[in-house]
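Subject: sequence -> structure tokens, single chain

Hey, anyone have a minute? Need the predicted structure for the following. Not urgent.
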Amino acid sequence: MVKKNRKIVIKVGTSTLTSGSVQLDKPRVLDIVRQTAALWMKNEKVCLVSSGAIAAGKEVLGFPQLQKTIPAKQMLSAVGQPRLMDLYRQYFGIYGLNVAQILLSREDISDRKRYLNARNTLSSLLDQNVIPIINENDTIATDEIHIGDNDNLSAMVASLVDADLLIMLTDQEGVFNADPSQNKDAELIKSIDGHIIPDGVWEAAGGTKNGLGTGGMITKLEAAETARRSGTMVVIASGESPDVVLRIANGEKVGTHIMPIVDTLESRKRYMLAGVGKGNAVIVDRGASNSLSTGGSLLPVGIKKVKGDFDRGEIIIVMDENGDTVSLGLVNYSSEEIKKIMGNQSDQIEKELGFKIADEVIHHNNMVLQK
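Reply:
Had a minute. Here:
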């Protein structure tokens, strides 16, 4: 049985959006939008990781002959990204849906504060029925902060939103046991469900498990390996296949299915446990403890005491008045800020601090229960 009300990340590459041509294939873009909108109508929450900005930039500028330099690519991305977003805005508007642009770099994922910002922003957009259209921040990215490809970016987004499913659309049917362009007997691998992806699969994809692949199927496998360890199922399939997104979402065995190693909750718990600072905790009253156990967020009014010294975006322990651990979570406020607002209602936060980041000290989306 297919799980309902899922979080789904769809990654579409340039080859899919252009149908292999030099410019965006607008009917193809519209078809991706149509399928995504259909998922939203079924109460699925979808993030769309989309390439295509450079291709759109070339089209806007009349396909100039440019040197293949990083500044030239960044310039084309800067020109093309608004054009790409305008297409998405128009096409999703046909179905009465709103979109938002999110540009991410590696720092946005690796830095705890920025990670929390990105996670909260994506969560808020999904809660408001706005479809995030996500791309790497190519216009300013340097080697140090560059993610490198939207395959790996899609895996990071899947982890950010605790996605149940990551659909990666490509120009091939899926992962083969040999290079289909070189071997006519190559066969589609329909499922990978072991604890590790076999070495032979990595080699058939054009590299090794520890290789330096920067594109093609190898990066999709690298991304799948990241996503499955976060509890996300990954499907790699052809973007040219009719209704491919809807068929995958409905449980049809299309493309290559790569099964998660752990579920999203277990992955989240491991992440939280690894990031807990020693002695960093808040003590909450019985009302707050009961609220958390039924899926509520931690509000300042329920906090009785702060232990340790921590900054916003760090992971702390939430304890009840008996000293038992209730949950782990990423805090929206530092220890010093919480001391100023604890015991107060959320509408008093700005008065006490001079600003307000959120109503919650820890949002339930950023929390793992221990009881």
